[in-house]
Amino acid sequence: MLVRFLAAMIVMFAAAPAWAQFTLGGGIDYMNWTEDTSPEVRETGMLAVLTGGWTLDRDRGALFAWRGSLYGGDVDYDGSTLFPPIRSIQSTTSYRGTMQEAQFRYRVPARGNAWVDLVVSGGVDIWERELSSIQKENYFIGFARLGVEFDRSESGVVAAAGLKLPFYTYEEAYLDGMTPNPIILHPGKEPSVYAMLGYRIDRHWRIMGTLDSLSLSESSATGAFVPGFGFGQFFQPASTLYRVGVRVEYTFR
To answer: pTM here?
Structure first.
């Protein structure tokens, strides 16, 4: 699944109009994933991130843009066993994923070389979460954003902020020996926030601090049979994800 989306990202980048501005970048995120269980499940650690995008090069009015990223890393798991007797455990969880977003922007010139974009967008966030050699989960989240972004062509402060709302959630949960395998879950959808604050060094380079978040409420339960445990009801607990990161980006002008 991730390979297909990476191929699509490359095709979109290659097919972008000649009058678009291209951006490449990268950075690191500190992620914090929590699940509302007892004891609480918490995953924390660093993810490496690669970013890309293009934006139609216009001074004002309506324009379109695309943003994409690849990310991955191993983080610390602090939680509990899945089956009784419940006991606390510490381990490592592997993440790898991609986010792709199509944006509609309306640009309003500001003072000097700056501008303000009103942004409405829709995208997907797809990741694999491997908790152990016998247990993993695949997520597909469709989301919309509504926000505002302040940028400029020369040096100075840049910023963005807005709301993020999932409109589609899909989770595949795998466990060796389980029937069916995987089980399909649909966590609930809750609004969250995103933000960016940074500094444009010159026409090409900018450095930024970023915040992204995702809030999912508890899913409906699905029945499954697990050898040695029997038949049970499984669900995704209410979950919250925060990613705080640093980005360095280069814009081809």
So the answer is: 0.89
The pLDDT tens digits for 154-188 are: 999 999 999 999 999 999 999 999 999 999 999 99
Do the Cβ atoms of 190 and 235 come closer than 8 Å?
no
Which CATH architecture group holds 2-252? Beta Barrel (2.40)
Query: Token digits for 243?
Result: 């990613």
Q: Say whether 143 sits in a helix, a strand or coil.
A: strand
In the chain the beta strands, taken as DSSP E runs, fall at 20-35, 41-56, 61-80, 88-109, 114-130, 135-152, 156-175, 183-185, 188-190, 192-200, 205-217, 222-226, 230-234, 239-252
Burial 76-91 (b: 16+ CB within 10 A, else e): ebebeeeeeeeeeeee
Q: Which residues contact 38 (CB under 8 A, 6 or more apart)?
A: none
Cβ(225)–Cβ(176) below 8 Å: no
b/e sequence 28-63, b meaning 16+ C-beta within 10 Å? ebebbbbbeeeeebebebebebebbbbbbeeeeeeb
Find out whether 54 and 26 touch, Cβ atoms under 8 Å: no
